[in-house]
Amino acid sequence: MDKYRILKKYFGYDTLREGQAELMDEILQGRDVLGIMPTGAGKSLCYQIPALIFPGITLVISPLISLMTDQVKALNQAGIHAAYINSSLTEGQIAKALENAKRGQYKIIYVAPERLETERFMEFACGADISMVTVDEAHCISQWGQDFRPSYVKIIKFIERLAKRPVVSAFTATATERVKEDILCILKLNQPKVLITGFDRKNLFFKVVQQRSTKQKEAAILSYVQEHMEDSGIIYCATRKNVEAVWELLQANGIRSGKYHAGMSNEERKQSQEDFIYDVSSVMVATNAFGMGIDKSNVRYVLHYNMPQSMENYYQEAGRAGRDGEEAECILFYSPQDVMINRFLLESKVGNSELEPENIMLLQENDEVRLNKMNYYCLTKDCLRHYILNYFGEQVSGRCEKCGNCQAEYEEKDVTDICRDIIHCVEQLRQRYGMNVIVDTLLGRNKAKIRSLGLESTPSFGICKGEKEGFLKNIIGELEQQGFLLPTKDKYMVLKLSQSCREIQNGERQIFIKVSKEELQTQTTETKKASKRKSDLLTSKGLELFDVLREFRLALAKEEAVPPYIICSDKTLTDMCIKLPKNKQEMLNVNGIGESKYEKYGERFIEKLREFTHGEEMTLYYEEALTEQEPIAEEKTTKRKGKKSEFSLTPEIEQQIQYTQQTTISDFVKQLNQYRNEDTTKCLSTTFITRKLVEEGYLKEEIVDGKSWKRTLKKGEDIGICEETRQSQYGKEYQVLLYTKPAQEFLINSLRDRWQI
Asked: Tell me, what CATH number does 608's domain have?
């Protein structure tokens, strides 16, 4: 049987996703593979289908019991005999499972890495026909990954002890270049096919919400959950204390929710997890101990009460939303205190480590780098999706138009003068305090702490009295990100000045930040998406049928003692509402219904559909919703009341332009902006122009000492962009890009004729 017949028969799909067929073919030809594919991209099919074609057994090494349990239940539901061997079984149950495996009862066996070291399992493995060993969650093999498991390092010793080397396949969703190299090296993959299908999860909407207090966070999260009462979601917290607080908040407001953290007993955690999986509770509040391998397909949102410790952790946790391919939201509620909390947790982790001292030091350095990258994600005003993709080595630029930053209305603002005030304040406070004290001093707040420290008498006291607290903190965050302010690594996070602050003080550097109206006003968690959900596809009658089918699915799940999503996904139910299948052939055309699923449930679902339609022909969906192209985010947002239009070069602006012999891009853009209609038109940004020049090969971007600089290429010189070396009063040399009159004319022509903003 070929892979496509197996795909249809057991899993109910007609087509494979990107990369799946290529990896399967390589495996079936006997070649080792490493597949790096985003969560929800179908990694498990890449080894499950070859496992059914191979003559022998496939061992799948998996890190968590919950992951194995879910996978085995799903396979058995699909009509595939599979088993798992881990610490949740008694020795008698393990012996029986191995005996059944020897008799050829199972094609796929999931096993915990620690079990590979036991004599009983080794004896079984050496006598069995093992066609493939699959290492799932392969990033666990690297101490530079986010879930390092020492037992994973010993997998290669197990493979080498087998009588015949099987095909070795490894899969992960999150791997930086360093982690990828570790996987290849430690597993000793033999001339492997390495396939990276891309890290993008196009159905996920990303957003960061800046919250300065616990009260703000709790109010925002409660409001969000109340607006999504029909949806299933996860709220991640950094500490047990926060899990308890958020869970109690939801319970007090009548929201069906569960909690999950290491301070609970095994029985409590198991019950809470089952309640969530079986839709008894709609929200799970948890630490990162929850979720790895939980294949609940209909999670519509993942909220982060605290910033995670790394981009790897965040993307894995956020990736638990929308595994069915439907639209889902990932919102991170950020406050600067999150950095301090994570530093404390990382110190605790290292303190309990069994690694050698030199390795501990390397691990600490790596943790600090990853924490800073995560913090920059929370502070950036650029595209969030592209920040994530660039982090994992997938270089992209521009805007995705489907994240909170791309859909926010930003204006670029010169904050150089305020930066000087902040630097002077840090100096006057002798670099002894953190962000909150500095901001309180700048705002001139008459607080007891400020008075007790005698800071009301400093020259900086009240110098930024007219600014908003959130605005000042964002500027400080930008100064941190660009390396002008250096937070200490202790729990108090005192701000220190770097040598490069002199560039700002001496007028050698300008600092711009993007400012949104949302940041300067009351923040909300309202999000905007261009893509459609079932409520966009189905009519009110269609939604009524969807609820009937969902209730019926829950009843089936209780009969079978499996989670509802194991029966079928929400996406499958929606497709049933659209197609209204009346017989076996039509039901097999429903997305996610294979032959095994049909034999078990197909006729019963058809009967439910007949009861609802009374045998009449019905159209329960909006036909235009299935055929029309998705509207892009810009088209949607332009309908908002009072929205400013993008900058465009009008004849009126062009008539007023004054060309000079030489100018900087900042001064040139400032001139154009002062001629626009401020009430109706957004500012033109220097970032837009320099990005266009980089894209078209006039400039190039270089990273020097962690900072981004623009340099002129031959094409840039030809149009009149030149570099000038200047020297500060402290003797430090720096480069300035100057635009001659021909270069200025080139920019105007491009803005008029070629560049669309």
From this structure: 1.10.150.80
Q: What is the DSSP string of 303-332?
A: EESS--SSHHHHHHHHTTS-TTSS-EEEEE
Specify if 632 maps to a domain: no
Which residues are registered as beta bridge partners of 734?
A: 726
Question: For the segment 535-594, what is each residue's pLDDT rounded down to a tens digit?
Answer: 667 887 888 899 899 889 988 988 888 888 889 888 899 889 999 999 999 999 898 898
The residue written with tokens 């990382």 in the block is: 346
d(CA 714, CA 206): 38
Q: Could you give the number of structural domains in the chain?
A: 5
DSSP state of 191: S
449 and 400 within one domain: no
Q: What is the pLDDT of residue 532?
A: 56
List Cα–Cα distances, 446 to 422, 441, 454, 459, in angstroms: 18, 9, 11, 15
- Domain presence at residue 306: yes
The partner residues of 645 in beta bridges, in order of sequence, read 681
Report d(CA 619, CA 641) in Å as an integer. 35
Domain boundary residue among 380, 407, 434?
Answer: 407
| 373 and 444 housed in the same domain | no
User: What 8-state DSSP symbol labels residue 481?
Assistant: H
| Mean local confidence (pLDDT), 159-175 | 91
Q: Are 731 and 748 in contact (CB under 8 A)?
A: no
Alpha carbon separation from 376 to 381, 391, 404, 695 (Å, rounded): 10, 11, 15, 24
Any idea how long the chain is?
Answer: 757
Q: In angstroms, how far is CA 91 from the centroid of its own chain?
A: 40
Task: Quote the tokens at residue 594.
Answer: 């294979």
In a domain, 517, yes or no: no
Indicate whether 614 and 698 sit together in one domain: no
End position of a domain, from candidates 349, 376, 407: 407
Give me the CATH number covering residue 167.
Answer: 3.40.50.300
Does residue 151 sit in the same domain as residue 216?
A: no
- pLDDT at 466 (0 to 100): 84
Highest mean pLDDT among 221-230, 291-300, 347-356: 221-230
Task: Render 202-225 in DSSP notation, one character per residue.
Answer: TTEEEEEEE--SHHHHHHHHHHHH
540 Cβ contact partners less than 8 Å away, ≥ 6 residues apart: none
Where residue 706 falls (left for φ over 0; alpha for ψ -120 to 50; beta otherwise) is: left
User: Which residues form the domain of 504?
Assistant: 416-510
pLDDT exceeds cutoff 80 at 701: no
